[in-house]
Structures are given as C-alpha cells and as structure tokens.
TrEMBL record:
Top-level taxon in the UniProt lineage: Archaea
Entry keyword annotation includes Nucleotidyltransferase: no
Keyword Kinase in annotation: no
Identification of the protein by name: Helix-turn-helix domain-containing protein
Gene Ontology molecular function terms on file: DNA binding; DNA-binding transcription factor activity
Gene3D superfamilies referenced in this protein's UniProt entry, alphabetically: Winged helix-like DNA-binding domain superfamily/Winged helix DNA-binding domain
InterPro entries: ArsR-like_HTH (IPR011991), HTH_ArsR_DNA-bd_dom (IPR001845), HTH_MetalResp_TranReg (IPR051081), WH-like_DNA-bd_sf (IPR036388), WH_DNA-bd_sf (IPR036390)
Stored SMART domains: HTH_ARSR (SM00418)
Stretches assigned to the HTH arsR-type domain: 31-114
Pfam families: HTH_20
Organism name: Haloferax volcanii (Halobacterium volcanii)
Keywords associated with the record: DNA-binding, Transcription, Transcription regulation
C-alpha cells in the first residue's frame, strides 16, 4: 500500500550570493550570537548546514530530547539563521517541520553601520571563495570561520 502523506522531504540547502552583514550596532547581531552560544544549538546548526532535518531526526542524531531540540530550533529560527523549508509526516501521521539553514550567508563584523556598504562588497566575493560557510566573523583585517560545513 502506498503512502498518502510524504514521510521524507525533498528540501535542499540553497545558498545565496549575497551575505547578510551584521555589525555591532545591529540588534540582530546579539540574537545570532546568543542563538549559537550553546553547544547544542551550535551542533544543530552544523547538522542543518549539511542536510535538512526534522526535530526528531536532529534529536536522534545528537542524542538529545526532542523538547530540547525544539527549544534551540526556536531560538535559531528567531535569530534568522535557520528556517522551515518543508513539512513531512511521521509514520503515525504527525506533521513534522523540516529545517534548513537560511539561504543567505551571514557576516558578523566588529564595526559600525557606517562600515557596512564597503565591507559587504568586499566580502561578497570572499564568501563565494570559501564555499558554503553560513556565518563569518570579522574584526578589522582578521577573519575567521565561525560556523562552517564540513
């Protein structure tokens, strides 16, 4: 008997060419840093950077409770670093959200809003050379990968 409801997703992780640029005077900067500050949230983000996943798949992969995973997913989603890309259904017919990383890479830099236009132009080409990192942290001329796909 074939299934009426999809139990798998066809969601993919897609990347944009234009990074979101966050500075110290941007309110979203604190949200992103706080959302990624916990080890569990960081591991969830890394997993989603590799492949779309449901909360139950994430919980199984990270040996965490589904409730704990939901807590971190809410924070990551409200910070804008992940999003719901699809819906699928469990074997019992329960609807499950499928999460992916946000399409835009994010550049966090330790500068002000006035520095943003020139910095964004400079890092647009830099981000494309690095492959699929989702978040970069920059301070002056020192740039490091904050979160990357492996």
């Amino acid at each position: 008997m074939s299934r009426i409801l999809p139990t798998r997703t066809d969601a993919t992780v897609e990347r944009s060419d234009t990074p979101a640029v966050l500075s110290l005077d941007d309110d979203r900067t604190r949200d992103v840093i706080e959302a990624l500050s916990s080890e569990t949230a960081y591991e969830i983000f890394r997993l989603l950077n590799e492949t779309p996943a449901t909360p139950s798949r994430i919980a199984t992969h990270l040996d965490q409770s589904v409730q704990n995973v939901h807590y971190h997913l809410e924070h990551l989603e409200s910070a804008g670093v992940i999003k719901v890309a699809d819906t699928c259904y469990s074997e019992k017919g329960r609807e499950m959200s499928v999460y992916v990383v946000s399409e835009d890479p994010t550049l966090l830099f330790l500068g002000t809003e006035d520095d943003r236009p020139s910095l964004k132009r400079a890092f647009k080409s830099f981000a494309s050379l690095l492959g699929p990192p989702s978040i970069l942290l920059a301070a002056g001329e020192c740039i490091s990968r904050f979160v990357t796909a492996e």
